[in-house]
Specification:
The complex is a heterodimer of chains A (672) and B (259).
Chain A: E1 4-9, H1 13-16, H2 21-29, E2 34-40, H3 46-59, E3 63-68, H4 71-84, E4 92-96, H5 98-102, H6 108-126, E5 136-138, E6 142-146, H7 150-161, E7 165-169, E8 184-185, E9 190-191, H8 192-205, E10 209-212, E11 215-223, E12 226-233, H9 248-252, E13 258-259, E14 268-269, E15 272-273, E16 285-286, H10 292-296, H11 301-305, E17 318-324, E18 326-329, E19 333-335, E20 352-354, H12 355-362, E21 390-397, H13 416-430, E22 435-440, H14 450-459, E23 464-467, E24 470-475, E25 481-487, E26 492-498, E27 500-505, E28 507-509, H15 512-520, E29 547-549, H16 559-577, E30 581-583, E31 589-591, H17 601-605, E32 611-619, E33 625-633, H18 643-647, E34 653-655, H19 660-671
Parallel strand pairs in A: 1-2, 1-3, 3-4, 6-7, 6-18, 7-10, 18-29, 20-27, 21-22, 21-27, 22-23
Antiparallel strand pairs in A: 5-30, 8-9, 11-12, 12-17, 13-14, 15-16, 19-28, 24-25, 25-26, 31-34, 32-33
Chain B: E1 2-6, H1 16-29, E2 32-35, H2 57-69, E3 73-75, H3 78-93, H4 95-105, E4 117-119, H5 120-128, H6 130-136, E5 145-149, H7 158-161, H8 171-178, E6 182-184, H9 202-218, E7 223-226, H10 229-235, E8 244-246, H11 247-255
Parallel strand pairs in B: 1-2, 1-3, 3-4, 5-6, 5-7, 7-8
Classes of the chains: A alpha/beta (672), B alpha/beta (259).
Chain lengths: 672, 259
């Protein structure tokens, strides 16, 4: 027979102003098996907790109901208090009479009535509670960071700094990500590579960090603390352990016409290449789509000139398997494809470019060595028309738009307002004879020193900001661009005869993120950004235990925010790896094997991949033995969401702490 | 290959050449245009009012006629094509319009958007194929620089008409190439000609016309082609004296069937 104590909290006037707490306590005292009921001004205070503990001891309570705030707030507090008094912590139930009652009701009579109903339901539930003991599992003290951009680099450095081993998997031949392509950073205008490349070198030199460049994650299995990951090291056709990065092979390679992705296709690279001078690792890679030797067996020039004998035309992809305790997704972003936005004539004129292309055009290591030229004049930079005199920036190309059939995004890409202000300012600073126009929907500049930066572009540098969108960019026969737009403030149609148009294209998560999310059983939103465990309170954790989020893969963000999040993700990983054993949440699903018919309904709905099937022997009523397929829940992976218990057609799945019986008892109590 | 053919009013009055050369070319290319019996005016403009069905009924009757014959419905005039294709899309996707239109029409079997609406240009591209067409050209229009004018109705809304990229189309340029001529790509080719404004604001139309024609002239065209009778009406008397033809006329000429 249970002995239940009910504790009703006033929460100052938070509850007591709308709920007659004394009446609630009295009513609860009359419930079956309730041996004690009292109210107290602040149950979560030390004195309040002492009241709970003393009562547990004196009254030999077997169950406790606290009528107070949301369990998210103080369930843990009261469970701890109960445990101190010798009661299993899972014998405590919370009736939320604050957020779900007093805060949302005005009338004390109905508020009191509802509080009684909620308390009654909790009392009914606690009668069916059973003591639970959380399980434990060991932790592999090694982390995996997927993506080697600034987010991944910062996370890896911070984890390594705490003394844990960490591997970075990067699909490109070098780490560094998008930031390597950026010329200057806002709002300080310092050189992006000057602040990034030292970090890349730190990664390479840190003995706790191992970089798998030109590699991709092939598969992930296991669970928090015990992930097992297969990594595909793609064939570079160069032995990375021998290559010294001298560049002799690149020099001699006769295949010169390969679009250079590092410079956004504005110039060409060789078939064997090192993406840029500060690449880490500084190892050459052969592009098999263009290499004459790999394509038709004729050439072999790089092999002949390589002093280190590193060229290996027969190299194959290699699969490595490694164990990790934690995984960080840092897969970053890409500008969207703007094929369907040709009202801006991107495919009709070379002088319509994206902002990332402009970064390369303004960078000293870019195709024009840092001189701003119209792309149509890249090969005749001395021409007096090469330098653009009138530049139009178009913001929100594909952002904040419902035109999904064009590939547009409803969200704000967040970084474009600031980098456009930066571009405009840099151009006006270096080429004061250039007129610069920026068309915008809104200028969004929240962030430290951000609005000041934008104001400087307008007031100090004389950039023409025009509220309104560009409707069409028409390439004219003389090579200039007729930009047709509306000025919403003066309510006018404008025509600007520009010679360079720069499109601030929306950004989207990298395409590999979707398949990675499937492997990790990490959830994503409709835009393929990884979802966080809680949008405010757990922003760097995925709902899947042991998976953490760093950088733009979780949502658009600039470099300072990315670095902040990267550090936060690292802190969470360190917190996990510092533990020798993980204590699980005992409120997880379990399957009644006798009732399970192996239909797979639960497996299909499980967002965490916690359910698998095994063939088990069962003794039949006629004493024969039959083998049946039954569900089994991995307790280390299950998060106790309960989706499987609802999906299970035979009622075999049930949740510890929230069993079907308990929930029915609550419903009965409410309806009584 | 037999298509149910919806010519529309203008092709029977102002734009008889568009119709005539289309028919001649069709027989030269080996497909048949079977004119729908008792077709009615498409209304000329797709009604934007969400609860409007009366003006959609004539399109639905034509669509249903094609369905009864088990044929695709072929159109030629840009305006008719736009209206009929958009109405068909309503019948496929808009439950409310579908129900009310069928309630009104009381057809033997309700029309649910089964008919496929194709434009003559689409038949040339997708059914005949421009490569095949090229083989059948007997008088290649060598040396001719032709500017294709699309206007608004042929391509938009892109998500419904699905003929080509409304901002950077190429179907008519590909046709011009197949006929042996040189296409002239100019930015105003998908801009509005002024449309029905020619009824009450001739000056506005003149402005639009000169913008479009000047842009084509700037890029060095000898002549322009269009699929739309209203565009033809608005563009043909231009200051640059650039001749404007229906695309079917040049097609017939290249195929050697122009009379």
């Amino acid at each position: 027979m249970h002995r239940i104590g009910v504790f009703v909290c006033h929460c100052g006037t938070n509850i007591a102003a709308t709920v007659d707490v004394k009446a609630v306590a009295e009513e609860m005292g009359r419930q079956p098996n309730v041996v004690f009921a009292a109210d107290y001004p602040y149950m979560c205070s030390e004195a309040g907790q002492n009241l709970v503990q003393d009562t547990i001891r004196e009254q030999r309570l077997t169950g406790v109901v606290v009528c107070s705030c949301s369990p998210r707030m103080h369930e843990a507090t009261f469970r701890k208090a109960a445990a101190k008094a010798g009661l299993n912590p899972y014998m405590v139930e919370i009736a939320n009479i604050r957020e779900q009652c007093s805060w949302i009701h005005k009338d004390k009579v109905s508020g009191t009535e509802k509080a009684m109903i909620l308390a009654r339901a909790a009392v009914a539930k606690v009668q069916l509670n059973a003591p639970l003991t959380p399980g434990t599992s060991p932790v592999t003290k090694r982390a995996l960071v997927i993506g080697g951009g600034i987010a991944g680099i910062q996370t890896a450095l911070d984890i390594a700094d705490a003394g844990f081993d960490v591997d970075i998997v990067e699909k490109q031949p070098t780490i560094g990500g998008k930031m390597t392509q950026i010329d200057k950073t806002f709002p300080t205008l310092d050189c992006a590579s000057c602040i990034l490349t030292p970090k890349m070198v730190d990664c390479a030199q840190n003995e706790k960090i191992h970089i798998y460049a030109f590699s991709e994650v092939e598969s992930v299995s296991g669970f928090v603390g015990n992930f097992s990951v297969k990594i595909r090291k793609k064939a570079r056709f160069v032995d990375a352990s021998k290559c010294t990065g001298c560049g002799e092979c690149v020099e001699k390679c006769p295949m010169k016409k390969v679009p250079n992705e590092f410079n956004m296709g504005l110039d060409n690279r060789k078939a064997i290449y090192i993406p840029f001078a500060q690449a880490v690792p500084k190892v050459a890679t052969i592009d098999p789509n263009y290499c004459l030797m790999l394509k038709n067996g004729k050439c072999g020039m790089c092999s002949k000139v390589c002093g280190a004998n590193a060229i290996d035309y027969k190299q194959q992809d290699e699969i490595i398997e490694e164990k990790y305790g934690a995984i960080v997704a840092a897969t970053g972003y890409n500008p969207i494809n703007i094929d369907k936005f040709d009202e801006f004539a991107y495919h009709q004129s070379p002088d319509v470019i994206t902002s990332l292309e402009l970064e390369r055009l303004m960078n000293a290591a870019g195709p024009s060595n840092g001189t701003l030229v119209r792309p149509s004049y890249l090969n005749k930079q001395d021409d007096h028309n090469a330098h653009p005199k009138k530049i139009v920036f178009v913001q929100c190309v594909g952002s904040r738009s419902t035109c999904s059939e064009k590939g547009a995004k409803e969200y704000c890409s967040k970084i474009c307002c600031m980098y456009t202000a930066k571009h405009a300012m840099l151009i006006r600073d270096k080429y004061p004879d250039t007129e610069v126009y920026v068309f915008y929907i809104d200028v969004r500049t929240p962030g430290k020193l951000f609005d000041e930066f934008y104001r400087r572009a307008v007031e100090q540098y004389g950039v023409h900001y025009i509220k309104g969108m560009v409707g069409k960019v028409a390439p004219k026969a003389d090579g200039t661009l007729d930009v047709q737009a509306s000025d919403l403030i003066s309510n006018e149609q404008l025509h600007i005869n520009a010679d360079l148009v720069v499109l601030a294209t929306s950004i989207e998560p990298d395409k590999t993120a979707r398949s990675l999310a499937t492997m990790l059983t990490a959830s994503m939103d409709t835009n393929d950004f990884f979802t966080e465990a809680h949008p405010k309170l757990r922003p760097v954790e995925s709902p899947t235990a042991g998976v953490f989020l760093s950088g733009v893969c979780q949502g658009p963000k600039d470099i300072p925010e990315t670095v902040t999040q990267a550090g936060a993700a690292a802190a969470k990983v360190i917190g996990l790896l510092a533990k020798d054993k993980l204590v699980g949440n005992p409120c997880i699903a379990h399957s009644d094997e006798l009732m399970c018919n192996g239909c797979s309904s639960c497996e299909k709905v499980c967002p965490y991949g916690a359910i698998s099937y095994e063939d088990k022997e069962f003794r039949q009523p006629d004493r024969t033995v039959a083998i049946r397929r039954v569900a089994s829940v991995n307790p280390a992976v299950c998060q106790g969401c309960g989706a499987c218990t609802v999906a299970c057609p035979s009622g075999a799945m049930d949740l510890y702490g929230f069993s079907n019986n308990q929930i029915m008892a609550e419903v009965d109590a409410i309806c009584r | 290959m037999v298509f149910s053919y919806y010519p529309g009013c203008t092709l029977k009055s102002k734009a008889t050449e568009l119709d005539r050369y289309a028919r001649l070319s069709a027989s030269a290319l080996g497909f048949e245009l079977e004119e729908i019996e008792n077709w009615q005016c498409c209304g000329g403009v797709y009604p934007m009012a969400k609860d409007e069905i009366a003006t959609k009924l004539s399109s639905i009757r034509a669509l249903n006629d094609a369905k009864m014959h088990g044929q695709d419905l072929l159109t030629l005039c840009s305006a008719c094509h736009n209206v009929i294709k958009q109405v068909n899309n309503d019948m496929q996707t808009n439950e409310d319009i579908r129900t009310r239109a069928n309630n009104y029409l009381q057809l033997d079997e309700p029309y649910l958007g089964e008919t496929k609406v194709v434009h003559y240009l689409e038949v040339l591209r997708d059914t005949i194929g421009f490569e095949e067409l090229k083989k059948k050209v007997v008088n290649p229009l060598k040396g001719k620089k032709i500017a294709a004018y699309y206007g608004c109705l042929l391509l938009r809304p892109g998500s419904v008409l699905k003929m080509d990229d409304p901002e950077n189309p190429k179907i008519m340029e590909d046709l011009i190439k197949a006929l042996g001529a040189t296409p002239v790509v100019y930015p105003m080719r998908n801009e509005c000609c002024g449309g029905y404004l020619s009824l009450d604001d001739k000056e506005a139309v003149a402005k639009r016309r000169e913008k479009v024609v000047q842009s084509a002239a700037e890029f060095g065209c000898d002549c322009m082609i269009t699929a739309c009778p209203l565009c033809m009406y608005n563009l043909k008397k231009n200051e640059d004296q650039i001749p404007v033809y229906y695309f079917t006329e040049l097609l017939a000429e290249a195929l050697g069937v122009k009379e």
